[in-house]
Every structure is written in structure tokens, then in C-alpha cells.
Amino acid sequence: MLVNLNIPSVKPGCPRGVRVASQAVQTMDDRYVGQDGPYGSKQYWLQGSFKDPGAGADTDLRCLMDGYVVVTPLHFDLTDRRRLGELTGWDWPDVTAGR
Question: Whole-prediction pTM value?
Fold first, then answer.
């Protein structure tokens, strides 16, 4: 089992509790900030923010923004199984022709 745990930044005070929620599929307004590293190499830091998913959204992002510790069970297989059959039926070019 893979469990993603997000802890909110709450100042002052403690988290409001623990919620189990699904993963948000939210875009991020991101930017990379470069700086010189300690040995002359360039380092880049991801910065940015997520757009507010709106009240009532039952996702990790909404719960985190509301001040909760969020637990989300995840898995690794991202295969779109509904499309496997569709792509299998496509007319694929012969990539072995040059052998």
C-alpha cells in the first residue's frame, strides 16, 4: 500500500483533524526559481500555488486548505484500461521493416 500524507501549515495552532480523501487533479500555477548552488551548479526550486478547488470539493487539496492532515491511498498503475482495446485496434505502422 502507498499512502500519501499531507500536513497543513497552520499558524498558530494545530491541524483541525485528519481526513481521508481522494487525490485532487488540480493544475498548479508554477514557476521555477534558479539560484547558484554551493559548488557552482545551478539549482532550481519549484514554487507556486494551486487554484482553490472550491468549497465542497472532496479532495486532498481542499481538506489541506481547510487545515486538515490528509491521508490518500494511492497506486502506481496509471494505465487507462478503457482505452487498451481501442489502441490495440489501430492500424500501427510496421516498425520492423528495416531489419
Answer: 0.66
Q: What is the mean pLDDT of residues 29-41?
A: 91
SS3 state at 42: strand
CB 68 within 8 A of CB 8: yes
Q: Please, are residues 24 and 59 in contact by the beta-carbon 8 Å criterion?
A: yes
Q: Are 22 and 59 in contact, with CB atoms under 8 Å apart?
A: yes
Q: How far apart are CA 31 and CA 25, in angstroms?
A: 18
Are the C-beta atoms of 47 and 32 separated by less than 8 Å?
yes
The per-residue pLDDT for 22 is 94
Distances (CA, A) of 45 to 7, 31, 36: 20, 8, 11
Percent of the chain with pLDDT over 90: 57
* φ/ψ of residue 78, rounded to 5: -100, 15
